[in-house]
Amino acid sequence: MADKKSTNTNSGPPVWATWLLSSFSDPNTSEELQGDLLEMYDYWSAGLGKSKAKWKYIYAVFRLLRPLARKKDSENYQKTYGISPGMLKSYFKIGARNLLKNKGYSAINIFGLAIGVSACIVIYLLVSFELSYENFQPDKERIYRVTSGFQNSQGVRSQNAGLSAPMPEHIRKEITGLESLAACHVWNTNTTVAYTKNGKNPSKVWKNDQSQVLICEAEYFQIFKYEWLLGSAQSCLQAPNEVVLTQSEAEKYFGAIPLQQVLGKRLYFSDSLITTVSGIVKDLPSNSDFKFKNFISFKSIQTKAWRKEFQLDEWTNTNSSSMAFVKVANKVTASQIDKQFPAFLNKYLDTKDEWNKGRTLDLQPLSDIHYNQEIKDNFSRQVHLPSLYALMGIAVFLLLIAAINFINLATAQSINRIKEIGVRKVLGSSRKSLIIQFLCETFVITFAAVLLSLSFIEPILSAFEKFVPQEFSFSILDPKLLGFVALIAALTSLLSGLYPAWVISSYTPIASLKNQVSFGRNGGVLLRKSLITFQFVASQIFILGTIIMAAQSRFMLNKDLGFNKDAIIHFQTDWHDSEIDKKDILIQKLRQIPEIENVSIGTTPALRGYSTNRVSYHDGKNEIKLDVHRRAVDENYIPMFGLKLVAGRNITNSDTAKEFVINQTYAKMLGFKKPEDAIGKMLTYSGGKGDINLPIVGVVSDFHLQSLHTPIKPLYILSENKYENAINVKVRTGGNSGKELNNVIGKMEVAYKEVFTTGAVEFSPLFFNETVGKFYQKEQRLSQILNTATGVAILISCMGLFGLAAFVTRQRTKEIGIRKVLGSTASQILVLLSRDFLRLVVLSIFIASPIAYLLMKQWLQDFAYRVDISWWIFALAAGVSIVVAILTVGYQSLRAALLNPVESLKVE
Amino acid sequence: MKRTFLGEFEEVVLLTVAILDQQAYAVSVTQQLEEKTGRSVGFSAVHTTLQRMQEKGLLSSEMGGATMERGGRRKRFFSVTALGRKALQEVKHVRQQLWDALPEQTLRLMGG
């Protein structure tokens, strides 16, 4: 009573301070503190006055609040230890027992996690491999490639990995800030090894793959660090006709002889360049685009004939095989070098020549070569960085879905362990030790999942062989990989274990022992529902992506491209052979094969690359100058590919250009209202010897010149049979089974070999429809990855849903029994049980659809010709999801609904 | 067992608890201290010192019975443990030794 008076009247200490003290001071000393302070207040106010006493009181309260005041542990209880070796052992033991007790749930958990984790690991391996390219070069930040930039007549810029061959030596002299510069040529040629055996000189010819032979200056080895086994960077490649080999190449040529004996051996390149081996270097690691194995000294090609072959004196030609690498001096930036290039180009290039308009030189960092698809060269394999990022995103999502699964199942399952938790708490377990216990159990599961996933890596990699770059390799014992795996295991354990552990350990002992905690009544339900929704949103996005990609690829493969592509085989003849007769002989021979319907000269209508010429037309007032695609063909070409002439006539055979056929797009761009108007008009193009004026004799309707990524461009067709070495063969379409086609190809090969006896260019026939299919390799790869990801996402989500449905059904067994007794039909119960889950699936469809729509719209921007994202795609995806969910939940529900109520009610 | 060092404030508080005998609780200790030393003593400082010395085993405590004053809240009475007595003895002994070691002259100069 006295207390009430003193606190409630104004004369007492501030009420809020007392409240603070009672709420936030150490509970163990709270009571006596409050009393003591009240007494002190009276003492102070007697000695110092009310207001001072008040301030002293407040000050003391704050000093005594936790965490400012020291915490005093209660002495009345024995301390419990959450982390002691004995308890940890027991936690793991009980964790393992629980796993074995609930085999079904454990299997779902472990398997789901293992799939997510293995997807993560495989993607990590691939992505980290691709991102590690060239990172072993010690001065990688200082190494650049000098690339050329061009501008066409429409102002569109393009880049070339090479530069005009005379440039490097002038750059070396005139550009400051370079530590070293190396001019290089990638040379696609064969190598002949001469042996001396029993006094005779047999030889062996090796056909080199692309990007194996590099003609380079000695500075190449100062820029790029190689490990020298024999010779040194300083001494080698200084003289003409020297070659340095990599270890593997030396072994390939000479077998397993001591490396010392390889020095001084002779190699013939392209049958005419004689070289002597002067050094051997170790092969670079596999994460490098620099796969060159034969390094020929640059001085070897200084003779007149070689200079001509490699166009060493051509200022106007830029070939991507002819490159220059530089290492900039310390503390010099790329922009400092780039700034010097415009003046350099002005000095050496004829600025009046319109070809040189907009020409630039730029430094491309070494680290950019593997990723920049704008700058193509003929030795590196470029990867698409956004695809790598997309992959990483997919990995994260899959892992999240798997973790969510775990959370859902574990929290739902915890209901079965409530009694255990109650008993543990009564026996003195603190919340902390319970959380540790459940985290240990999670860790057991994660650990099992990670072990399982490690065994999945190999099969997954071999199943996806197509996506794995050839040079990719990995070792399970790689410390980086093990570190990543450990990180994933720890992260997954925490991510998926912390929440369930928190929930489980929060049950109060009394409630849990009285069995008053029930599933469905605590706040965890909302969370669980949102997690399931999230899972299905992710799956739904994957499904939508897959469907749209499939639709687009079907569209691309089946779209009428404006030409025939069936039963056509195309190949190249030997370009070394400039005698026109040989090609004609071959064509004659091919015509004699009965299965062959027609033969024509010319590159296929749609190509992977392109070649353009600048053609101008003078309509009386203005000159229209355009970069126009070209096809050099013969008179059989247009009928054979089924191209439609809309005006004029077909082209006639000729060895050199004498007339044009153009496409409708070009006719329109030249301003002709009707195609007929174009007939007889003159076009000017610059051939080898000055400008040539030639008439248009026909107009063909538009067909696709490239993949569907690009719109149809202007085109001219001419006949220049002398210079064209691509041949197309149309096979008679009877019942052309694969066997028959192979038979025809066999006959063609025989004919080819009879005509071209040197074998310098092998007969390599391709089916045109397959060639067109290959335009979309990138998309096919992406869609295959997405297909798999979708499958995995659906699988994991469904496993989670299945487990949860099983659990909920079991919880509600009695309810179902009572409902049945009161007259519910099986179908009513089925609906009752499935409704909750279906509601979530429907919600996730509504969330996922707009997200997927935006993402896929972005993806389709890449294509000039694309499918519409129409409503049926969403309907289909929604249908798939709902059906899958019904099947998953339905089985459990049906079983529960059909159960005899006697069975479900008799147990108490 | 390692020796327990007493801080100056700890020593004074411990002594005061001993002086107050059965009646030592935070408030009485604070007031006694202010009275005897004439300096202003923070209540919270006394409280935490008492708690700390209890943790160290120099003091033991028990709750008194409820009374009508201070809103019926009980008091926590402190008493000096054997260890606490030993610590006090030790401090006194050390002091005594130091005083004894003082040369006569100095002692006289100090007015002793």
List key phrases describing it:
heterodimer; A: about 900 residues; alpha+beta; 4 domains; 13-stranded mixed sheet; 6-stranded mixed β-barrel; 29 helices; about 50% helix; disordered N terminus; B: about 110 residues; mainly alpha; Arc Repressor Mutant, subunit A; two-stranded antiparallel sheet; 5 helices; about 10% strand; elongated; WH-like_DNA-bd_sf (chain B); WH_DNA-bd_sf (chain B)
Q: What would you note in describing this structure?
A:
Chain A contains 29 helices and 24 strands. Chain A is α+β, with helices and mostly antiparallel strands. Chain A has four domains: 2-64, no CATH class; 140-368, no CATH class; 387-554 and 778-906, no CATH class; 568-774, no CATH class. In chain A, a hairpin with a 4-residue loop joins strand 20 and strand 21 (691-700). In chain A, helix 3 packs antiparallel against helix 4 (50-64) and helix 5 packs across helix 16 (431-463). In chain B, 58% of the residues lie in helices and 9% in strands. Chain B contains five helices and two strands, in the order H-H-H-E-E-H-H. Chain B has helices at residues 8-20, 26-37, 43-56, 82-101, 104-109, and strands at 59-63, 76-80. In chain B, strands 1-2 form a two-stranded antiparallel ribbon. The longest helix of chain B has 20 residues, at 82-101. The mean pLDDT of chain B is 85.
Number of strands of chain A: 24
The oligomeric status of these chains comes to heterodimer
Average pLDDT for all residues of chain A: 83
Instruction: Report the CATH topology name of chain B.
Output: Arc Repressor Mutant, subunit A
CATH class of chain B, anyone?
Mainly Alpha
Tell the overall outline of chain A: globular
CATH superfamily of chain B: Winged helix-like DNA-binding domain superfamily/Winged helix DNA-binding domain
Largest sheet of chain A: 13 strands, mixed
First-residue to last-residue Cα separation of chain A: 53 Å
Radius of gyration of chain B from CA coordinates: 17 Å
* Beta-strand share of residues of chain A: 15-25%
Distance between the termini of chain B: 37 Å
- Would you count the extended β strands of chain B for me? 2
Question: Which architecture of chain B would the CATH scheme give at its second level?
Answer: Orthogonal Bundle
**Low-pLDDT residue intervals, each spanning 5 or more residues of chain B:** none
For the largest beta-sheet of chain B, the strand count, sense and barrel status come to: 2 strands, antiparallel
| Arithmetic mean pLDDT of chain B | 85
Beta strand % of chain B: 5-15%
- In total, the number of domains of chain B comes to 1
